[in-house]
Amino acid sequence: MKRALVVGINCYLKLGRLRTPANDANAVAQRLREIGFDEIRGLPSPATSEAGLWVDPNPDRQVSSRELENAIEWLFAIGEDKSNIPETAFLFFA
């Protein structure tokens, strides 16, 4: 199994809004899907499940450190029966 976490944070408390991180993360996620990644999760998660959109480019809130920690834990999570160990775990952060 190939699992990926793509993070594209456009909104920071002291930096204001950035323009490209979410777009970059969505482009990386699309390419990972094309090359056969089984599970892809984006952060911040989009409000809708629009095709080709893994990361919300205009979130109405900031990503919390707890959300980021939970997402990274998911990336490396192993099931109780050890059946879903990812052979590849990919983290993209922009």
TrEMBL record:
Residues 2-93 form the Peptidase C14 caspase domain. It comes from the Bacteria. It holds the Pfam family Peptidase_C14. GO terms for biological process: proteolysis. One of its GO terms (molecular function) is cysteine-type endopeptidase activity. Gene3D superfamilies: 3.40.50.1460. InterPro entries: Pept_C14_caspase. This is Caspase family protein. It comes from Planktothricoides sp. SpSt-374.
